[in-house]
Amino acid sequence: MEISAQLVKQLREMTDAGMMDCKKALVEVGGDIQKAVEYLREKGLSKAAKKADRVASEGVVGVEVASDFSKASMLEINSETDFVAKNDNFKDLVAKSSKLVFDHNISDVSTLNSIQIEGTKFEEYLQQNIAKIGENIVIRRLESIKVEGNAVVNGYVHSNGRVGVLIAIKYNNANSKTPAAELARNFCMHAAAMKPQVLSYHELDYEFIQKEKVALIAELTKENEELKRLGKPLHKIPEYVSRSELTAEVLESTKKKLQDDLKAQGKPEQIWDKIIPGQIERFIADNTLIDQRLTLLGQFFVMDDKKTIAQVLDAKSKELGDELEIIKYVRFELGEGIEKKVEDFAAEVAAQMQ
Questions:
Q1: Among 9, 43, 29, which residue's Cα sits nearest to residue 123?
Q2: Beta pairing, strands 58-65 & 71-79
Q3: C-beta of residue 146 within 8 angstroms of C-beta of residue 70
Q4: Would you kindly state where each structural domain of the chain is located, as residue ranges?
Q5: How far is Cα of residue 280 from the mean position of the Cα atoms in its chain?
Q6: Which one of the record's GO molecular function terms can you name (predicted)?
């Protein structure tokens, strides 16, 4: 039968349920509005809509990895309070949602919503859980990575469930599979702690780097004022801040200056080749501070802080007689980017009593 928009509007005003839920309820009961109210109450959907405008910024990040490292998935499920995030019903929802995403290799919420779970669409299943648990719950984002051929994907979720990371590594030799998977896991743990935003400097555009450069130099200059007052060594103010600025011309010019310095110091020319590579490496480290803050490959590895992730990857490649390459990096931190709504407690109680 045809359900009028006016009837849907009336049911929505009576129950605060979503428009689509109201229409479906009316269709199910043949347009009888009182039966539709009962239908929504039985489904728990009349409560769910009232919770939908409340900010969900707690919750958990879940990670699933295949035993053969051929695929992995990660999702962030938000709740309103940390208390509910520890609820058994919520944990069950997370486990079932994670398995669904993993089994079907899903990478977007709209696809997840259309998948069947326990005889119903996931979107409806989630609404039922919202009503049962008593808080707004949001599947905020998810990612699935499936690799083929000579590649592995591994993941890590921190023990508090607030940070998760997936990393995929490509290799050439079959014998490299296990060490590549172990390395991916270690890099995931590093990324969980050190918060790189992107994989490499190639993902940072020129305008962004120049803005960050101005801010970084101002920050270091300000810190130097305090260091000078305390009589401590000052920060070097870098001329460059990213590997993208260190062109072949810049590196060649730097090498020439270093050679001139060694010559002025009276160092024998035959030993320059042993000294200059280390000095170039130091120059690059001093002039890639933005990369070290924001990129995975540019950061110094927490398990070997003398080498960047890129250098560790290169060293492992040489050790294995292979060529390893990170082909995918994804990091979720619970609630990042969400503005948490802070309300006056007395005002909140007063609002609920109206």
A1: 43
A2: antiparallel
A3: yes
A4: 5-50, 58-146, 201-294
A5: 33
A6: translation elongation factor activity
